Amino acid sequence: MMEEGRTPKIVDVARLAGVSTATVSRTLSKPETVAQKTRDAVLKAAKESGYRVNLSARSLRSRRTGVVGVLVPNLGNTFFSRILAGIESTLARKGLSVLMVDTMHQTTKPEFILDYLNDSRVDGILSLDGSLSPTLLQAGQATAGLLPTVFVCEWHDQGNHPSIRVDNLQGSALAIDHLVALGHTKIGLINGPLDNVLSKARLSGALAAIKKANLKIDDSWQFESDFSLQSGVAAADSLLTLQDRPTALFCANDETAIGLISQLHRRGFYVPKDFSVVGFDDIDIARHYLPALTTIWQPRMELGEIGAQMLIERLENKASHTPQPAKVLPVELIIRETTAKPA
Amino acid sequence: MMEEGRTPKIVDVARLAGVSTATVSRTLSKPETVAQKTRDAVLKAAKESGYRVNLSARSLRSRRTGVVGVLVPNLGNTFFSRILAGIESTLARKGLSVLMVDTMHQTTKPEFILDYLNDSRVDGILSLDGSLSPTLLQAGQATAGLLPTVFVCEWHDQGNHPSIRVDNLQGSALAIDHLVALGHTKIGLINGPLDNVLSKARLSGALAAIKKANLKIDDSWQFESDFSLQSGVAAADSLLTLQDRPTALFCANDETAIGLISQLHRRGFYVPKDFSVVGFDDIDIARHYLPALTTIWQPRMELGEIGAQMLIERLENKASHTPQPAKVLPVELIIRETTAKPA
DNA sequence: ATTATAGTTGTAATCGATTACATTTACCAT
DNA sequence: ATGGTAAATGTAATCGATTACAACTATAAT
Fold first, then answer.
1. In what helix (H) or strand (E) does residue A246 lie, and over which residues does it extend?
2. Domains of chain A, residue spans
3. Whose CA is nearest the C1' atom of nucleotide D9?
4. Please, are residues A87 and A94 in contact by the beta-carbon 8 Å criterion?
5. Distance from the CA of A269 to the CA of which of A66, A71, A317, B294 falls in 20 to 30 A?
6. Mean pLDDT of A33-43
7. For an interface test with A, which of B284, B289, B293, B301 has the most A Cβ atoms less than 10 Å from its Cβ?
C-alpha cells in the first residue's frame, strides 16, 4: 500500500522492492541487464505503487526525449493521414512518440518552428514539408548540432538530408502517356506552387512526357494552384476563358482535380465528355467522387513507415553520418472515370 | 562570443549578462518582475549566446510541461482539421503546444493512451473522443490527480468534465424538417456507431423530429455506419436490398453520405432524383461534391477555440473546480443539391 | 534621521530520474 | 582452495532549469 496524496517516485519503488534506484531504472529501460528474479520484484513493486516515470527527469538526465517532430504542410489534406499512420506505428514500435506540427496552421514563421523544435523537445525530425530545409540548416549551424532529419514525400536539394519519396517523374509520365494513348493532343497542366519541389518534379516530368509524345503545350494551358480545392475552382474559371482549350488536364493533386471538375460542371462542362482529368495522390475520396477520379496512386503507408525507419536508424547509430541516397518508391496509374477519348 | 561545441546554459547567459541565474530565469518567464535595464542586458546576452531553454529541466522543476494532449478519433477525417486549427492557434497564444494523439491509429488500447498521457507529458487534455472518459476517470483515481480535461464535439455523461459541443438535436431536427418540408414521408437514417454520443444524440434528435412530423420510421430503414466512406457504401447496398425503401436518408456525417451517394450512383440510382440525402459536418469537399451535398454546418473553428479557452481557464485557476455546464453552439442547415421533392 | 515598504536581485535547495564507477556475488577453471 | 571473469547491484554525481527565502536597495512616511 502507498501512502496517499503523493505520486510514487523511483525511490518508493526501490524501497518497496528492496533494491536501489539504479536497479529500478535499469529494470525499466534495460531489463536484460537485471536478474530475472530482481526484475520481477521491481515490476511488481512498480505496478503495486502505480509508478509512472517522470519524463522530464528522464530526458533531462538521459538527453533523449523519445519524441520525433513531424512537420506537416497541411493537416487538412487527407493525403497526409495515411502517411502519418505509417510513421506513428513504426515509431511506436520503438517507444517513440510523435509531436505533430502543422507548418500551415502554426501561427508563426519558420524561425519559430525551429525555436520550438529544439533538441530538448525532440530527438529528430520527419519533415513532410520541403520548404523548411534551408532554415533548418541555418539553425543547425547556430546551435550545437543539427537535429537528425529525414524528409518524407517532399525533400530539399540543399543539405543532403536523407529522404524517402515517390517517383514523381514516373507519375507524371504515366498520367501524360495515358492521356496521349487516349488520343489527346492538347494537354493542359494545373501545376502546384512553383516553389514546391513536388510541383517542380511533376511539372518537369509532364513536360518531358509531352515532348516525348511530340506534342506542343501552349503556355496558356498551364495554371498554377496551391493544392487546394479552391485553386482547382479558380483554374477551371481561367481555363474556360480560353478560346483554344486543351482537352485534357493533369492536376497537381487530387484536391485540385476535384475543385476543377466541380467548377467545370457548374459551368456546364462535363468530365470526361468535355475534358479528361487526371489527379495525383489517390486520396480516399478519389474513388468515391462522381465521376471517380483517374489518378496516380502513391504508397502512402510505406512512405511513412520507411521514413520513420530511416530516422530510427539515424538516431540509433549517431556515429555514421554516411549520407544515404534518397529512396524512391514507384507509383501506379489508377484509371477510373475522369478520362476518356477526346470528343 | 561563445566557446564552440557546447550549447549555452542558463549560467552562461547569467555570466555574460553579469547577473544570477535566477534573474535570467525570471527575465524569461516573469519579465515584469525584473528591472527594465537588467532585462535588456539579459535578453541581449541570451540572444548573443544563442541560448535555448532546456525544456526538460524547466518542466522537471516547475511541474508544468506547456503541452496539451489532443485526442482525435481519426485524423484521416478532414472534419477535425479546422477544429485543430482553432485549438492550435488559441493554445499557441498562451505559449502552449499540442501533442496530438490519434486514438484510432494509436496501435494500442485506452490504458496505453493514459499511460502515455501522464502528467509529466501534458498539463491537460482536450478530447475529441468521447469514448475515453470512463478510463480517464479510473486512471485519475489510480494516480494522484486527474488531468484537467475538456471535451470538444464529443463528450461523456459520466464524470462532469466541461465540454463544448454543437446542438446535435437541433441539427437532426433541421435536417429532418427540411426533408419533411420537401414532402418526404419515408425517411431513413444512416446512423453512426451506436456507442458514440454524437450518433446517439443525432439519432434521438432525428427520431423526435420524425415523430413530431407524425411520420413513422420502419426499423429496416435504419442502418449503422462507422462514419467512414466505406460504411456509406455498405449502407447503400443494404438499402437497395429493401422492397419498401425510404425516399430520403439522413446520414451520420458527410463521409458516410458521400460513400452512400457514390455507391447508389454505381448501382444506377441517382441523388436527388431517386433519393434525397443529407449529411452532417459540412466538410470542405461537401460543396465540391457532385451533386453538392446538403448538410449541417458546424462552427468548427469556434469549437476548437472555445474548447482550448476553457482548458486554459482550468489550467490557470486550478483552485476553482466549479463544474462548468456544457457549452452548446448552434448549427446551420446548408441546402445544396442532394435534396429534392420525392419522385 | 529612522523606519517601513516595495521592488530587485542573489544563494542555494530542489525537481526525479539516469549512469559512471565501484563493489559485491556467482561461477568456473586451475 | 584460489584466482579470474562476468554478471548483478549499489552509491552518489549529474542533467539544467525554477523558486523559496534571504538580502539588499531605493523611496516614502514619520
1. none
2. 10-53, 64-165+301-328, 168-299
3. A23
4. no
5. B294
6. 94
7. B284
Q: Is pLDDT at A3 greater than 60 in this prediction? A: no
- Using CA atoms, how far apart are residues B73 and B260, in angstroms rounded to an integer? 22
Please say whether the beta carbons of A252 and A225 come within 8 A.
yes
Grid coordinates standing for B191? Answer: 446512423
Pick the CATH number of B10-53 from 1.10.260, 1.10.287, 1.10.60, 1.10.3210: 1.10.260
The letter for the amino acid at A38 is T
Q: Which three cell numbers stand for residue A335?
A: 484509371
Q: Is the CB of A60 less than 8 angstroms away from the CB of B52? A: no
Residue at shortest CA–C1' distance from D15: A61
Residues in chain B: 343
| Rounded CA separation A299/B93 (Å) | 37
Nucleotides of C under 7 A from a protein CB: 7-12, 14-20
In sequence order, what DSSP letters do the residues of B99-147 get, joined into one string?
EEEETTTSSS-HHHHHHHT-TTT-SEEEES-GGGHHHHHHHHHHSSSPP
Closest Cα of chain B to A298: distance in Å? 16
Average pLDDT over residues B31-44: 94
Residue showing cell 519533415: A127
CA of B84 to C1' of C14 (A): 37
pLDDT (0 to 100) of residue B5: 56
Output the DSSP codes for B153-213. Answer: SS--SSS---EEEE-HHHHHHHHHHHHHHHT---EEEEE--TTSHHHHHHHHHHHHHHHHT
Confidence of residue B321 (pLDDT cuts 50, 70, 90): low
Identify residue A214 by its one-letter amino acid code: N
A36 CA to C26 C1' distance (Å): 15
b/e burial code for range A101-126 (CB count within 10 A of at least 16 → b):
bbbebbeeebeebbebbbbbbbbbbb
What pLDDT shows up at residue B140? 46
Instruction: Point out the least confidently predicted range of A88-102, B106-120, B153-167, B283-297.
Output: B106-120
pLDDT of A237 reads 98
Pick from A306-320, A322-336, B31-45 the range whose average pLDDT is largest. Answer: B31-45
A3 C-beta neighbours (distance < 10 Å), count: 7
Query: How confident is the model over B222-266, as pLDDT tens digits?
Result: 999 999 999 999 999 999 999 999 999 999 999 999 999 999 999
Lowest-pLDDT range of A163-172, B109-118, B216-225? B109-118
Please give the pLDDT value at position A331: 98
Burial of B262: CB neighbours in 10 Å, binned 0-12, 13-18, 19+: buried
In CATH, A64-165+301-328 is 3.40.50.300 = no
pLDDT of the residue at B2 = 39
* Percent of chain A predicted with pLDDT > 90: 76
Q: Does domain B65-166+301-329 have CATH number 3.40.50.1370?
A: no
